[in-house]
């Protein structure tokens, strides 16, 4: 009798859908948190222990804001520790200059969690990436503090990587932006050569240049991201489409002399890697269809190239992703796969 019951349990029938994921939401969030830790270590190494304080304050504010929002909207309080608020706090801090005052991550994280996430229903219901929206809010409110204060650990050279006094306070992408206004042709040519020098590309890859906390070292972002892609926490389509589009767009621009630096420089500089690998891949704010993921990534790449080459900011990654977040519902609508047996005419009527 007991053996019959035991056998029945082996063939338990459950309703569809019969999908099984290796990780639940909480596990995914904490895996991403772990993947972001090498970049935190790099920030402490390059800019000092004040970087750690900025990140801790940002994370604490994000978790507290999530807790208060859950309390106000009568949602489960324990979700403030599901890891999503921690990721938002970390990414918001990673977009700050290393000398930002401590009140900036407090304001940015509170805005990201309460305004961008909680007011729209919480995790999975926000249509913008909270960390990027928080950064955009800080950039619009205090542009001076968000675009200055670049430092580098003593002994690592200048923040721009170029031994010219006029560029000592600029990041590498800031130098590219300043090249447009230089009238001294000899200085412009020297600087252009320095930007494309292999030693500069090496500094960009390892992180020996100025920038915001989490974007300077490509190496410390790339290795964890490859692991996340391998275990399918990150879908490979958006990073590949995003980085590929930037590489192709800047290659064409470089061949036609629309940019003074090579595609490799564009790929390694600024927040492109941080954005393409850890922000553009946010589950809640990106398309769900395979074709939609390609369109989203290509759109981010095109906008980034346009802003970097002809926009007012030297960067462009944050605004590119936010703009594509806005059109994500339309992408999903027009890239929805046809249901088996559904005719094209019937789909069109829907």
From TrEMBL:
EC class? translocase
- Which purpose does this protein serve, as stated in its record? Part of a membrane-bound complex that couples electron transfer with translocation of ions across the membrane.
Tell me the superkingdom of the source.
Bacteria
TM region positions: 27-47, 53-73, 102-120, 205-231, 238-256, 262-279, 291-310
Classify the protein's membrane topology as the record does: Multi-pass membrane protein
GO CC list: plasma membrane
Can you tell me which family this protein belongs to?
Belongs to the NqrB/RnfD family.
Q: What is this protein called?
A: Ion-translocating oxidoreductase complex subunit D
């Amino acid at each position: 009798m007991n053996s019959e019951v035991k056998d029945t349990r082996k063939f338990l029938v459950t309703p569809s859908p019969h999908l099984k994921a290796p990780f639940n939401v909480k596990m995914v969030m904490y895996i991403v948190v772990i993947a972001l830790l090498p970049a935190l270590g790099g920030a402490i190494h390059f800019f000092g222990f004040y970087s750690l304080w900025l990140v801790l304050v940002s994370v604490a504010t994000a978790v507290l804001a999530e807790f208060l929002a859950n309390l106000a909207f009568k949602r489960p309080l324990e979700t403030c520790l599901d890891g999503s608020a921690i990721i938002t706090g970390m990414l918001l801090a990673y977009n700050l200059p290393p000398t930002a005052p401590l009140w900036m991550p407090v304001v940015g994280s509170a805005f990201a969690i309460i305004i961008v996430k909680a007011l729209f229903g919480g995790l999975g219901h926000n249509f913008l990436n909270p960390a990027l929206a928080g950064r955009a809010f800080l950039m619009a409110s205090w542009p001076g503090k968000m675009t200055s204060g670049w430092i580098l650990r003593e002994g690592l050279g200048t923040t721009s990587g170029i031994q010219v006094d006029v560029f000592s306070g600029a990041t590498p992408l800031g130098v590219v932006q300043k090249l447009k206004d230089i009238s001294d042709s000899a200085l412009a040519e020297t600087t252009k050569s320095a930007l494309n020098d292999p030693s500069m590309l090496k500094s960009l890859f390892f992180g020996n240049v100025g920038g915001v906390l989490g974007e300077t070292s490509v190496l410390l972002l790339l290795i964890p991201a490859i692991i996340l892609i391998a275990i399918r926490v990150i879908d490979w389509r958006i990073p590949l489409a995003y980085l590929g589009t930037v590489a192709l767009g800047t290659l064409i621009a470089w061949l036609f002399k629309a940019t003074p630096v090579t595609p490799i420089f564009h790929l390694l500089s600024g927040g492109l890697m941080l954005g393409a690998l850890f922000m553009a891949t946010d589950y809640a704010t990106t398309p769900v269809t395979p074709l939609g993921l390609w369109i989203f990534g290509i759109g981010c790449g095109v906008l980034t190239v346009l802003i970097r080459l002809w926009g007012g900011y030297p960067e462009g990654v944050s605004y590119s992703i936010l703009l594509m977040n806005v059109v994500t519902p339309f992408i999903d609508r027009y890239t929805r796969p046809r249901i088996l047996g559904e005719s094209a005419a019937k789909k069109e009527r829907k």
